[in-house]
Amino acid sequence: MGECKVGGAGREGGSGRAWPCARVVVGGVAIVVGAGLLGVAVGAVARAAGAQPEKVEPVEELTGDGDGLEWARRLSIDPEDPRLAGYKAAQKKRAEFERGLRKLRAESFRSEYAPKRREGIEKIKAHTDPTTFQSLIAVFGEEGEDVRRALLEHFRASRSDAGDRGLAWLAITDKDAGIRSAAREFLESRIGEEGKATAGMLEVVARAAAGGTSAHVERAATLAQGLNLYEVIPALIAAQAGGVGGGGVGGGGGGGGGGRRGDLAWVFIGEQQAYVADLTPLVSERAVAFDPQIGYVTSGALIRIHDAVVTVNHRPVIHRALMDLGSRLTGSDLSGLGQDRAAWAAWRDSAYAGAMAARKAEREAKSHGGVGAGAGTGGVSVPSGSGGSGGGGGG
What we know:
Number of strands: 8
Largest sheet: 4 strands, antiparallel
Helix content: 40-55%
Strand content: 15-25%
Oligomer: single chain
Structural class: alpha+beta
Order of helices and strands: EEEHEHHHHHHHHHHEEEEHH
Shape: extended
C-alpha cells in the first residue's frame, strides 16, 4: 500500500492527512482506491469487467506540491481556479437577471388586466440584448398566448442568431400549435431575408431531432422538412429508428450470450427472520447468564435474468420527412433504402455529401456574382394563420 494525502504542502490550509491507497488494474482499467474501499472497488470493477484483478500495486504519494499522480489531480476541479472567475460572474449575473424577470412576471402577468399585461410585454421587449433571450424563454415560455406571441415578435425583430434560436425552439416545443405555426412562418421569413438557414436555427433543429421527447423529435423533423433544412438530414437518419418512439412500429434485436456464462443480473425480494440458534450458559459463583447465538432464516423470491432483448421503435413521421428531404435534395427516389441504417449511412457519405457540396458551390458562385440576400422589412407582426409551404433551403 502507498499513501494518498489530502491537502499537501502546495495547497494553503491543507491538512496533510494521508491514508493507505493502491492502484487496482482490472480489464485494463486502473483505479485508485483507499484501503477501506479496496475490497468494494475490486469486486465492483471485477464484476463489470468479467474478470479478476490483474494486479493490485501501491501508488506513489499524492500531494499538492507538484509530485505524485498528476493525471488524478487534473481530474479534479478547483473552485478557486481563476479561470472560472468569468464563468462564475456570468452565472451570477444571469441569476440576478432572471430574478428580476420573475418579479416582472409576478407583477404583470398574474392577472388578466389588459393594460397591465401590455405594460409588462413592453418591458420584455426592452431587453434587446440577444444574450438575454434564453432567459426570456425560461421565465416567460409558459405564460399566456399574448406573452409568447410577443416573444416571437421580439425574437424576429432582433434579426440575430440568438433570435433565430428562440424562434426554432418555440416552433418545436411550444404547447400551442398556433404559436408553433407562427414561429415557423417567422423562420421562413428569416431564411428569405438571409438567403439561407442561419446556424442558430440549424443547431436547435438538429439537436431536437437527435434527442428529446418523441413529440419534439417529430416536430423537429417536420420543421426541417417544411423549411428544406437539408443540413439536418444526418440527425434524421439517426433518429428515424431507435429510442422510445411514440407510435412507432417495434422491431427487435436479440441479446445473445456471446460466450458469456451465468446470469446477466439477479433480483432478490424477501425477508429475514431472526431466531435463537444456540444458547450458551455462562455459570459463575452464585450467578448464571446466557449467551444467545442469533441465526437468520431468509425467505423470498429470486429473479434470475439470463438474457436481454433490445427493441427498436421505427418512427414513421421522421422516416417520411427524411425520405422527402433526401429525395428533393438529390432528385432520386429513396424508397428503396427503407429502414436499413447501413444503406442510409452509405447514401449520406456519397450522394448526400456530393449534393451538399454542389449546393455550397452554387451558393458561393451566386454570391460572387452579386446576388445578395433579400432586404429585411421594418415592422414585424405575428402571423395568425397556419404554416404554409416550405421556405428557402438551409445553408
